[in-house]
Amino acid sequence: MKKLYPLACASLVLLSACAKESAVDQAALALAHARQLSEAGQYQSARDELEVAIKAVPSAADAHLLLAQIAEKQGDLQAALGEYVMADATAAGASDARHAAAGLLLRTRAFKLAEEWISRCIADRPADKAMKAYRALLAERLGDSKKARADAEAVLAEDQTNVVANQVLAEEALRRKDFAEALTKIQAGLSKDALDGALLQLRADAFRQQQLPEKAIEVYQQLVTVDPASPEYRFGLAELIASRSGADAGEQVLRDGVKAAPNSVDMRLRLISFLAQHKPRSTVIDELKASIGAAPDQTTFDVVLAEIYAQNNELDAAASILNTAVARTNKEPAHSFAQLALARLMMGRNDVAAARVIVENVIKTKPSDDDAIAMRGELSLREQNPEAALRDFVAVAGRQPANVRVYSLLADAYLQNDQPREAVSALKRTLSLNPASSELLRRIVQVHSGLGDFAAASRATEDFLAKNPDSVDGRTLQIQLAIRSKDWTSAETGLIRLRENPQADRLSVQLQAEIREGLNQNEAATKFYGRLVLRDTGTLDVSIAQAFARASIAAGQIPQAINLLTQHASDVPQADLAAYQLVLAMLHDGIGETDKAVALVDSAIARAPAAPAPYLQQAQTLARKKDFAEALAILDRGLAAGAPQAPLLLVRAQIQAASGKSQDAIATYLKLLRLDPGSAVAANELTNALADQNPLDKSALREARDMLQKSVSFKTMAMIDSLAWADYRLGEFEKAKDILIKVKADQSSNPQLRFHYGAVLVALGDQAKGQGVIRTTLNDTYPGRDEAARMVGEP
């Protein structure tokens, strides 16, 4: 046996080597077969072969790379990213996978992840010019055009044909409408890679913008020839051909795409999207039904069809479609996709209980389903349970740091939980993922402004404009904030920048008028508004006419305003006649021509007896004259005529409160809240009215406070103050203190808020600090100032 031992060892070594060689051969054969299947468009079969290759040789970098490319084509982006990372980890010095990962992250707008990945790769290989080019493209996507251009030019200084760097400069040139420069950069990049899809699409876009559709079509035909199964290229070609030869010709391009890629859900969805733009609703529905029949294991088309019915308020039909889809397939993720769509439909019908049952069942089956967990968070928001919502949204955001919707919902949850600063942080994260979104900026500004922090709102706007200097919405918001905070220098500077955009001429004049009005230069304001009274179409703009009338009253130029507006009576659109008469009524009332004003209001009522505006305007005019009885009577007339109750009841309560009828005002606010439980203004005013009652009705105040807490997700500083003051009046001092500390009441510029914080501290026994805070408010005038003085023993 001892003599046989060396031979046995040698045999074992040989067997081991043979096994290794067999695994390598097996992987190579599977990879070759996968390439053939992929080229034939049989992606799922190719993926199956690649799984065999990777199982045989886990470090097969080429297999991971091809698997990633196929997963990306199929829309399985998470799997694609994972395989690109694996391919990079297993490839010895190759860069294809890491570059592909950077490109994928940028295409999917996962900018935070892209930044981390690109930084890590450049730190690992500082000389990687291609990755530096992706860094330039990231800066371009984040709106930092200056950095993007500098980085791209640095790359091109070493490699004039770098595809991505040329793409960056071509995009920048197209924004400037410098088509010659754009096409030069595009051609430079194509000299290295003649089939680069991004550059070819930019070339088509350049031709399209120059009104050269034939050339743009040629480019897209080239793209489709290279990749006939690409839904993106097919859709671009279809749109161009439709604009030239009609919708039927464009439709045929996409139908040919469905033949080329019969299993592509995205291709069919592109066809359906095209039909929705160009064909009747019935055609879209028929196509969706055909797609459902062609892909019974999918539920995507069922969900889209249900959405179409739901948009038309055919909720029963939508629910029936989704229930059928749920029953038809148990295959994941199609089954849970339909279930969650059904839950969302239930949410739309305000059937939160039914939606929660569905969502909880999905989570029970798939505990890590982020879509279901996020929807559970939305349900918790509906149920006024922000703590539970936060747990779910934070969990999903941790796993999906590039999920814009989840961060937006996270902001909603923070707002509902009275954590506005945390909400702003979440919104800023969302803005970093979508840096050109003026709507996100508007939300951030709304929160800061609601807290009275206009400086922070202005900083957020400045940061946005640094990345989006050409944004008309961002510039307008900057100017409006400056007007509101009376920062006239900033307002004028912003206006100069806005005037650089020729498409903002009319808006620039309007903002100039608002600045003059804010400066009490009303005569100048009327001149600017007067230039805008007629639209470019020749019709009268009633909203501008209202501003013109307001400035004219302040400038003492009412007769001139009446003269100008009556000259344009024939230019008023029929739908705006009632509003136009109310503007004239306001002017006539301003010079004491009460009979003419009343006649105009009556005429407006006759035109639209159920519209609230005439009753509101007349009631407010009468209330300013202290004719409270007549003001209430005109509101009652509107209620009897069937005008919407909510705005009339709100003004009625305000007039009752102004006339000293606090009990009547409380009763009206309660009536309004029964009609509209979500009325934040009514809940806030009711809470304040009850908190100021003497003797205090604790039961009614507690009910009003709880209603205010639940009525809105975003609470302004005034609402937060109302909640805290109600807690104080109810003797819940610690609760009041917690609310006021969250909003840093001791640092607020609002003296009433600081007084309330000081009163709470005194009630909790911290006399010295509380009285010190209160004393800082006594040089100001505000509601409750006398009570504050008594608390510290001062006159």
Layout of secondary structure:
Blueprint: H1 5-39, H2 43-56, H3 61-73, H4 77-90, H5 96-107, H6 111-124, H7 129-141, H8 145-158, H9 163-175, H10 179-190, H11 197-209, H12 213-226, H13 231-245, H14 247-260, H15 265-278, H16 281-294, H17 300-311, H18 315-328, H19 334-348, H20 352-365, H21 370-382, H22 386-399, H23 404-416, H24 420-433, H25 438-450, H26 454-467, H27 472-484, H28 488-498, H29 505-518, H30 522-532, H31 542-555, H32 558-567, H33 577-590, H34 594-607, H35 613-624, H36 628-640, H37 645-658, H38 662-675, H39 680-691, H40 698-711, H41 717-729, H42 733-742, H43 751-763, H44 767-775, H45 785-791
What are the salient characteristics of this protein?
76% helix; mainly alpha
